[in-house]
Predict the structure.
Amino acid sequence: MLHGGGKDRKVFSKYRLLLKELGYGTTVFDFIGHGETGGELYESSLLSRTRQAEAVIAHLNHPLSGCMGVSMGAYNALHLSTSIQLRSLILMVPGVYAKSAYKVKFGPDFSQIIRKHRSWEATDAWDIAAGFTGNLLVIAAQNDAIIPSEIPQKLADSAVNAAKKDLLIIPGAGHNSIWDSLMLSPDLYEKNRSAFERCLSK
């Protein structure tokens, strides 16, 4: 499970319990510059984050069936799917980035690239999604002030070779309040739970 740029592994605590109920074990960690890992964020990059995830997976030395990425972590999850065969991919409030930003260290140069108007349109995420053949679940927040609504829709539309795919838009939710919105409606929670189950199943 890959957290976003402004969070740490604790963001997954409720989702880990949900997945445990569904019978799936999970692994979380803090990227460099976040949580308890330490290190300097500005010495990292999107590419470095993907390689950190690959290093954790190699250390586990255990078969991996799926990956969940939130916000920036969704872009890393997509890239991870190009080097590791994943049965399931869950992208929540997914951020995507211009391909030219992938190797640039976080800092002024990175910010200059991503702050250009609609820079995300120059991403490689659409092509990666098109090449994914497992089960895809994209979860979007209706009132996301950070991620443009076109991004989750285009990711789902691009996944033409996915075995199964779902786009779930959470009514009333903001970028950081998906779980809070799910807790307001038992029906919505069950819809989300069922979507997870469909994506994770064979």
Remarks:
- The chain has a mean pLDDT of 96.
- The CA atoms of residues 89 and 160 lie 14 Å apart.
